[in-house]
Design a protein that fits this description.
Chain lengths: 533, 112
């Protein structure tokens, strides 16, 4: 294609057999090594690991078998019936089943079909946010020559992060009793060992742990994909993927464990021994602050796009951006309401607050444009909706409808000024406003959650936080914001410097001007004519 | 007056434009074009299918200047568009008989 004709790209047809064969051999050896590691019988230090998979299958089959068998057996005693009814009530109330009659077909170790169905749906919705929601949202905002590069980056995140999640990512986030205390999980679930259809009571009584792990994986995929927005159109694909690989280990896995791990140091809701009693319902700190602040630092280290300040970098298709925005909004119900990890009343509240805050922010942003610049823009509606979704995220399961309205107004106004005034004041090239929306919105969301959270809509706030909610919770939120900032900024500086020193961050000027679609991927998003054959 | 047409690599357009401004060129017309020169076609492979690429995307820019500026303009384009690799493009200079500015009716050098 274009670069070949310009005379500096190898011809793909004449590949070198002497190099290809050792590469294939190396790949096969690596694949074999992984197979040996994962299929080997469980080692001595983790004897119970092999037991749950074997035990779970019959347990899951038991309730179905129990129903027709019941009349033939001796009539159950009242106590027995009461205990079994209590377990069914536990399912309805999303509380812990006692499993007193497990041997006769109780519910311990069994997932609840309703909760499981909602979480599988939510998982798919959150993946839908990245593929294709975010890919279209960002894809429309870049120039025509870079649309595929953004899509490749989103797809690359989905592939790479899923592999890391299986390897050790899930375990580093949700494993218990890690060597680093509340900072990082353990390796107990490495290779998703023991992660099967049985629920893990530390996180959900009625949701299969394999569903839970896939649900959380979707968050791990979209977070690095958000960073892409600040550095769009000017970073080599290889450098982005190398950056994300390191970023997951240094920033995401530790931070997600601190906030959501059952023994995480910032898990105020569930960890009574947490050092910082902060709350974050669906990822204001873990997802939006971490990606937004890392994006700003990476964008500063990377430098501006060539021609920044002289040429207009106009979105090549706001139609795609609008379609992506709609998908993000829809997918976000899985993100926010799904973060209840059950189809319960907390999820119902999150569903409502997500809708209200987003709709209001979606009006406030273009309204401010209308007042200050004379016209409400489509990009303004889209940015407002996404900002509303971002800011309600940490608060969604903790605030009521009034709180959601306040958050919606703030979400439409504060990121608006960050994207229009702050950016032009400091002249950083946050190409698609990842910092303005996700870092500014996420940080504000984390803070206002501290003021607006109420135990009236979420009884879990009474478990470990009854003294803080409505009083000093915002101070704990500030501490969590500080830790998140330190980790995201410090981690990104180190990782960006490593990548810069080894493979380099930027494409050549020629490649940047030609467009990354052609130079990194050898394809074009659009062919208006077939003259080239 | 001379018309100077240059066929250049697309990514060099901004540099050429800036350089032309410096030598006093006040306007230009730009086309996205495709073509090939001495190097001819290249074989490419996409998804296992081979095909020949004859036409390479280029930018063609056109300026009309007084005779006195022509040499400077050609030198400026040559310097700014050069990478030293194949496919840097070509410059053509042709005489112009007449020029008219439509709005005012000005003629020739006043009109360019």
């Amino acid at each position: 294609m274009r670069n070949v004709a310009l005379g500096h790209s190898p011809n793909q047809k004449d590949f070198d057999m002497t190099k290809t064969i050792p590469r294939i051999a190396l790949f096969l050896a690596f694949a074999a090594a992984i197979l040996v590691i994962t299929t080997r019988p469980s080692s001595a230090d983790e004897p119970p690991a092999a037991a749950p998979p074997a035990a779970a299958a019959p347990a899951a089959a038991a309730p179905a078998a129990a129903a027709p068998a019941a009349p033939a057996a001796a009539a159950p005693t009242t106590a027995e019936l009461a205990a079994r009814l209590a377990d069914v009530e536990a399912y309805v109330n999303n509380s812990e089943p006692k499993g007193a009659y497990d041997a006769k077909g109780g519910t311990k170790g069994v997932s609840g079909p309703g909760h499981n169905a909602w979480m599988m749906t939510s998982s798919a919705l959150v993946l839908f946010m990245t593929l294709p929601g975010l890919a279209l949202f960002y894809g429309g905002l870049v120039r025509r020559k870079n649309v595929l590069s953004v899509m490749a980056q989103c797809l690359g995140c989905a592939g790479l992060v899923t592999f890391l999640w299986w390897l050790v990512g899930y375990s580093f986030v949700f494993g218990k009793g890690g060597a680093l205390g509340g900072l990082l999980g353990s390796t107990q679930f490495a290779f998703l060992k023991g992660v099967d259809a049985a629920p893990n009571g530390d996180y959900a009584y009625w949701v299969s742990q394999n569903v839970f792990s896939m649900y959380q994986l979707m968050f791990a995929i979209i977070t690095p994909a958000l960073i892409v927005g600040a550095i769009a159109e000017r970073m080599k694909y290889s450098a982005i993927m190398a950056f994300i690989l390191l970023w997951m280990f240094i920033v995401y896995f530790p931070l997600a464990h601190m906030v959501w791990g059952v023994d995480g140091m910032m898990n105020g809701v569930w960890n009574a021994g947490a050092k910082i009693h902060a709350i974050d319902f669906a990822g204001g700190t873990v997802v939006h602050m971490s990606s937004g602040w890392s994006a700003l630092i990476l964008c500063l280290i990377l430098g501006k796009r060539k021609g920044f300040g002289q040429r207009a970098f106009l979105p090549h298709s706001l139609v795609l951006t609008m379609v992506g925005t709609g998908m993000l909004w829809v997918g976000w119900y899985g993100f926010n309401a799904g973060s209840a990890v059950a189809a319960d009343g907390v999820a119902a509240n999150a569903f409502m607050t997500t809708t209200i805050a987003t709709a209001i922010a979606c009006c406030v942003w273009p309204l401010l444009e209308w007042i200050t610049r004379g016209k409400p823009t489509i990009l303004g509606f889209c940015s407002g909706a996404v900002a509303g979704l971002v800011v309600i995220t940490p608060a969604t399961g903790f605030v009521n409808a009034t709180g959601a309205v306040i958050i919606g107004v703030l979400a439409g106004a504060v990121p608006f000024f960050a994207c229009t005034k702050l950016k032009s004041m400091f002249q950083y090239d946050d190409a698609l406003d990842t910092f303005g929306v996700h870092a500014v919105g996420g940080t504000m969301g984390a803070l206002v959650t501290g003021f607006l959270a109420t135990a009236d809509v979420n009884a879990n706030l009474k478990t470990n936080l009854s003294g803080l909610v409505g009083h000093g919770l915002w101070l704990e939120q500030l501490k969590a914001i500080g830790v998140t900032l330190a980790l995201a900024i410090g981690g990104t500086v180190v990782i960006a410097m490593i990548v810069k020193a080894t493979i380099g961050l930027r494409p050549t000027v020629e490649n940047e001007e030609t467009g990354l679609d052609e130079t990194d991927h050898g394809e074009s998003g659009y062919h208006y004519d077939e003259a080239a054959g | 007056m001379k018309k100077i047409e240059a066929i250049i690599k697309p990514f060099k357009l901004e540099e050429v434009k800036d350089r032309l401004r410096q030598v006093g060129v006040s306007g230009m017309t730009v086309y996205e074009v495709k073509g090939f020169g001495r190097t001819g076609g290249k074989t490419e492979v996409y998804r296992g299918s081979a095909y020949v690429v004859d036409f390479v995307p280029k930018v063609r820019l056109e300026v009309v200047v007084p005779d006195s500026m022509a040499a400077d303009v050609v030198a400026a384009i040559s310097a700014a568009a050069k990478t030293g690799k194949i496919g840097d493009g070509k410059i053509f200079v042709t005489p112009i008989e007449e020029a008219v500015r439509i709005r005012t009716g000005e003629r020739n050098e006043d009109a360019v």
